[in-house]
Design a protein that fits this description.
The chain has 15 helices and 29 strands. Helix content is about 25%, strand content about 20%. It starts with a strand and ends in an 8-residue tail after the last strand.
Length: about 550
């Protein structure tokens, strides 16, 4: 999960440093794998002024430029068609490494003329795929200023590891909420103010699930927006998407990618004029149906996959990926936005069967907040109207939020018995409330705790103890020495752990080596040692090379 510091600060009012935030994230279970500061690799690059650009004497397609770098004048040979006298661009000095290509610059002669450094394109700076010309900056760009600071690229980028149980932290807002609970600042709620629709949606939604399959999609929220003008998304959105490795496409498409990471809310947008009929249907049982996905590939569905379609067939693979036939383009003027809840197990199975990865699938199979469908629609509507204009319809709501509420008994004394930390009921209650839990004191050592909708992983008292411990701080768990080993009364024989140490030392002293091997192995190799019985064959191996449990420790040695 990647996000920038400025993105985090949209939901976390804080004065903490990058290092303090990183330390806190790791301490509460959101392990920081890396922090990348783009300003570091862009440090050599400065804004420069092309004082003169004239024809290269020995090459028709090259220009000979005299460049004011703010620290003197240099001569640069440039092949960009837009290089001209008076322009301002980005200068890379000799000795620097170009981020987008990895090329290390050095003084050279190009067609017999000396060149020192280069004027860079967006692709060479690692900002986009644009390379038709060099970066052309506004006239008021200050000569000599670091390019990263001028463009707002001096924004540290965090990359954190999210464990499968913390689906709520697959959104920047969820990470900010956790940090606020840990005392790193104040959480800023996202703006999900309802937008009143002015007309009834001309497109409806129907569930056509057979008996027993209704849980494939318990809730679908849709909204029709007419009169939109699709184009490039705002620079701030493009910058954020680029910072996490996503390529901006258009305002409507970028909005869906942005909300997926921003609020952990997968969204899909249909070009409403490409939908045949007056409604979308959702069903399973589309065995053999063909589907052209947005990634340009064709897939064949089986009868257990959840599909969304219209009068002409399948339009979208629910929870995984949208289809090419109803995708938005620059000509799109009317859209239908989809925000739904899809069954995690079916979504995961569909993706695995088709070998189809997507950010939406990654989140749905881990579980999304069931209460955030309607608020998510309001956030999506607001972004579309801000970027593309348009008039919004009333909401189309099919199905209902599934029952998710559960209340668990929590005894603060268990924080000590399970976690080794003495915390009173008041401190435990305060931590749980900061995390969004509903609590009610039922006795001196008994709290009724209701997890929030976004914490589907909380299922028992031990989970509540873990929440209290991680926010209080695992580092605050006191170190306690183990009791000294005692000999059994009257036997004079040491306990097993001590014998194990003696055995290891004795074997090592005789030249033996200890090996710790995989518990899995290829079935073909297992057959060489008698084979693995059926009960040792894995139903879902991590790879084809580890498809059976080892029948003994010998084969992997």
């Amino acid at each position: 999960m990647k996000f920038s510091l400025s993105w985090l600060r949209q939901y976390l009012e804080t004065d903490k440093s990058v290092d303090e935030l990183a330390t806190s994230m790791t301490a509460i279970g959101l392990e920081v794998e890396s922090i990348e500061d783009p300003a570091v690799k862009l440090a050599p690059f400065h804004i420069a002024h092309v004082i003169e650009a004239k024809q290269h004497p020995n090459a028709d397609k090259l220009r000979l430029c005299v460049v004011d770098t703010g620290d003197g004048h240099v001569q640069v040979v440039c092949g960009a068609p837009n290089a001209r006298t008076g322009m301002k661009g980005v200068f890379a000095p000799s000795g620097s490494t170009v981020p987008g290509t990895g090329l290390k610059l050095k003084p050279s002669k190009i067609r017999g003329v000396e060149s020192n450094g280069m004027l860079c394109s967006e692709r060479e700076m690692g900002l986009s795929d644009e390379h038709e010309g060099i970066i052309d900056l506004p006239e008021d760009a200050p000569i000599g200023q670091p390019f990263a600071a001028y463009m707002g690229l001096d924004d540290p980028l965090f990359d954190i590891a999210i464990t499968p149980n913390r689906a709520d932290c697959l959104g920047v807002s969820g990470i900010a909420r956790d940090l606020a609970a840990a005392g790193m600042g104040r959480f800023i709620e996202p703006d999900v103010t309802p937008i009143v629709g002015s007309f009834k949606s001309p497109l409806g939604v129907r569930f056509e699930f057979s008996d027993g399959m209704e849980d494939a999609c318990p809730l679908f929220v849709g909204r029709y927006i007419k009169g939109v003008k699709n184009g490039a998304s705002p620079k701030w959105m493009q910058d954020r998407l680029l910072s996490v490795g996503l390529r901006p496409i258009s305002a409507l498409v970028d909005m869906t990618n942005y909300l997926t990471i921003d609020l952990n809310r997968p969204v899909h947008v249909f070009d409403a004029d490409k939908v045949a009929g007056d409604h979308l249907w959702l069903r399973t049982g589309c065995d053999g149906a063909k589907f052209d996905a947005l990634n340009g590939k064709e897939y064949t569905l089986d009868g257990e996959m959840t599909a969304i379609g219209d009068g002409n067939g399948v339009l979208s693979l629910a929870g995984v990926m949208g289809g090419e036939s109803s995708g938005c383009t620059e000509e799109t003027t009317n859209v239908f936005i989809e925000i739904a809840l899809f069954d995690p197990v079916r979504t995961a199975a569909t993706g695995r069967k088709l070998n189809l990865e997507s950010d939406a699938r990654y989140r749905f199979e881990r579980g999304v907040d069931p209460e955030f469908a309607v608020p998510g629609m309001e956030a999506a509507t607001r972004l579309v109207q801000e970027m593309c204009g348009g008039e919004a319809s009333e909401l189309v709501v099919t199905g209902a939020v599934p029952e998710w509420r559960r209340e668990g008994a929590f005894r603060p004394s268990r924080v000590h018995s399970l976690g080794g930390v003495e915390l009173d009921a008041l401190a435990c209650d305060s931590i749980l409330q900061k995390l969004g839990f509903g609590t009610q004191e039922l006795g001196s050592d008994h709290i009724a705790a209701e997890p929030p909708a976004w914490r589907g992983d909380i299922v028992g008292e031990a989970d509540l103890v873990e929440e209290v411990l991680r926010i209080h701080g695992f580092d605050n768990i006191p170190a306690v020495s183990l009791p000294r080993l005692q000999r059994r009364a009257g036997s004079g024989i040491a306990l097993a752990p001590r014998r194990l140490g003696w055995a290891r030392r004795a074997l090592a002293a005789r030249g033996m080596s200890e090996a710790v091997t995989w518990s899995f192995m290829p079935e073909a190799q297992a057959k060489l040692f008698g084979g693995a019985p059926p009960e040792l064959t894995l139903a879902n191996p991590i790879s084809s090379d580890f498809d059976v449990m080892r029948p003994s420790i010998l084969p992997n040695l």
